[in-house]
Amino acid sequence: MENQTLKEQCNIIIERISDRLYHDRKCIIPQLAENIAWIEICKAGQIPEREVIPQGRRINPEIISQIYDPLYAKGATREVAKAILERCAAYLKEHTESVYQPVIQYLREHGNLEGFRYETRPHGFGINYEWLVRCGLAERYGIPEKASILDREICRLGYRMKS
User: Fold this and answer.
1) Alpha carbons 67 and 34: distance in angstroms, whole number
2) pTM, rounded to two decimals
3) Is 2 helix (H, G, I), strand (E, B) or coil?
4) Of the chain's two ends, which shows fewer C-beta atoms within 10 Å, N or C?
């Protein structure tokens, strides 16, 4: 995937995932919609309520209607799942700078993410640095490290501003 554009990478991922989502619509797409609702709620400077989909809909009804409603209005087809994933990928690309602002600021100040810590919501999955690589904002590199059980150096994965 290294030599492909972000759009090509997203299309490949969307094709792979849309088949899975076709069979598992009750779990994945509502979770995507909840995560995007969280982004909208935080951008609006609000505190998330118990039900984030209705709160996100009040803030940005357009995006919620594009990524949540079709699943229930049109049924779970491969085409519906693919359209939802394409819209989610486009939304995330449009909002990468604001969503990843603390990470990008740290990268600009320090050049890499060594020592970077950012508390995420307790039930979240943390920060996906690979998205910054896919968007062309960061790159992966190996950080040499002595392994305590080996007599040689190994490399662990690091991220830095793309040069």
Assistant:
1) 10
2) 0.62
3) coil
4) C
Q: What is the pLDDT of residues 66-87, one digit of tens each?
A: 998 887 887 777 788 888 888 9
Give the closest residue to 49 by CA, choosing from 60, 38, 36.
38
Q: Give the H/E segment covering residue 137.
A: none
Rounded Cα distance between 125 and 162, Å, is 24
Helix/strand/coil for 113: coil
What six digits make up the tokens of 128? 């996906």
Residue 105 CA to its chain's centroid (Å) = 18
DSSP per residue, 28-81: HHHHHHHHHHHHHHHHTTPPP-S-HHHHHHHH-HHHHHHHTHHHHHT-S-HHHH
